[in-house]
Amino acid sequence: MTILLSTLNARYTHASLGLRYLLANMGDLQDVTQIQEFVIGARTTDMAEKLLQSKPRIIGFGVYIWNVEETTKLVALLKRVAPEVVIVLGGPEVSYESSEQTIVQLADYLITGWGDVTFPQVCKQILHGPKPLMKIHAGVQPPLAELTMPYSLYSDEDIKNRTLYVEASRGCPFKCEFCLSALDKTAWPYDLDLFLGELETLHARGARLFKFVDRTFNLNIKSSLKIMQFFLDKLEAHPEDPVYAHFEVVPDHLPDALKEGIKKFPAGTLQFEIGIQSFNPEVQTLVSRKQNNEKAAENIRWLCENSHAHLHVDLIAGLPGEDVASFACGFDRLLELGPHEIQFGILKRLRGTPIIRHTQDYGLVFDPYPPYTILATDRIDFNEMQQLVRFARYWDLIANSGRFAHTLPLILRETPFANFMRLSNWLYSTTDATNRIALERLAVLVRQWLVLEGMDEEAAAEVVRSDYAGQANTKLKTEAVHKQAVKEEKQAVLQDALSSLTRRQARHMAS
Ligand code: SF4
Q1: Please, which residues bridge with residue 315 across strands?
Q2: 263-306 pLDDT tens trace
Q3: Which of 286, 310, 409, 477 is deepest in the core (most CB within 10 A)?
């Protein structure tokens, strides 16, 4: 094989959409190009051996915040054992602040931004001359109509075992400074009929799990309705074999027509990922996030009370201008609205994002190593930030996992953030760990905590036992079988070293 397209995915179930876009748009080089994906944690020598087996002349790597360290090692090793193989990099992690990065210094070429058009051009020059003069190439951004959609490149194996990422649009018109999409000028839609035709084919091939990576699904309501109708038609035609769709939405824009559509989805078929990030108006202004908090809260409550959609809502701790008290206020406000999951993320400094303009004024201190997590601000010191990090981890284990559905309200009571923080601090002082805590042990610890808080020992044991025995009658546990598979996927995602929020912020660039 002459050209290999490769990346290290965060998990096996994450099939790379970016690599498939590149392959779909290779033109007459497509026949000599192949995808070879790995999963982070694989041995560098094993990956290098596999890549070199087909004697490629060019290897293109998709570099992301979650794989940059391992990809750097892989490229370094390849350059030692096979220096003749030309290495071309692309992806959001290397598209900004490029020259200072070791991986860029090791590689032969770099394509910043969109790679769909520029990668095949650079490959042609490498293979047939004249050799590219420049090392760094700014990726050309073509009209989306000129791109070939990649969905036929999902293999039967992908369809059977992996999450299928799809996109009806690229880009975002908003400018939240912590997000890579803030650099987009706007959102660009694909031809909707063509896109739905691709979904139709995927569905006919057996695909049932569709995850939209559109930054904002509900920007263009006409398109949103048409896409939702596609899924509703499938659900009506095949109720015994339902589809499942996942969308990212902005919370303050839910017109009645969209609500009507949402209401029609049965339980276990629709998930919304909703970014709140912060309810603090001062913080929102600082990071240029435009959000009508009242409308957003009203819509989240409406979704909880009137739809079967599973709501996964994001908050970010560590934003400039936010202190622990104001974050706690936002957390409690959000919890009261009743979403199924709160994804509590810690701010990351994604390369290229404008958030760094606040570094001096707000004392932002970021970890210099990926994923560049915030360590302290002028309002949250290092120790408090560490407490928040542990809170997030225990929140995943106890609340988001759904394993303590009956017990959780007894932990949270009237002041949820404060109470869970105390539990979190106690768990850490007792175990000195935030991971590798077996469920059995966690259940014992939670029971102990309830007793320490004054609960009757037998009552505490009973409520924890009812959850632990899997009797919690949570929404998730009573939904359709395929939803269980989705949940398992989500739990697996929660175990990733990076929060889904970070990955979502980072993955919008196709390659
Ligand atoms: S956080 Fe969401 S709304 Fe804001 S720029 Fe990023 S994708 Fe757009």
Answers
A1: 277, 344
A2: 999 999 999 999 999 999 999 999 999 999 999 999 999 999 99
A3: 310
Q: Is residue 460 part of a domain?
A: no
The residue type at 192: L
Domain presence at residue 410: no
DSSP letter for each residue of 417-451: HHHHHHHHHHHHHHHS-SS---HHHHHHHHHHHHH
Which strands make up the sheet holding 310-317, listed edge to edge?
Answer: 164-166, 209-212, 244-249, 270-277, 310-317, 341-346
- Please state the domain count of the chain: 2
Q: Is 316 in the pocket of ligand 1 (CB under 6 A)?
A: no
494: Cβ contacts below 8 Å, ≥ 6 apart: 396, 400, 401, 500
pLDDT of residue 477: 36
Residue-wise pLDDT for 169-214, tens only, equals 999 999 999 999 998 888 999 999 999 999 999 999 999 999 999 9
CA–CA gap between residue 71 and residue 83 (Å, rounded): 16
Whole-number Cα distances in Å, 455 to 397, 402, 412, 462, 464: 22, 22, 13, 11, 12
Query: What tokens appear for 403 in the block?
Result: 């394993």
Domain end residue (candidates: 380, 407, 422): 380
Question: Is the Cβ–Cβ distance between 125 and 131 less than 8 Å?
Answer: yes
By alpha-carbon position, which residue is closest to atom 4 of ligand 1? 176
- Domain membership of residue 449 (yes or no) is no
Ligand 1 within 6 A of CB of 176: yes
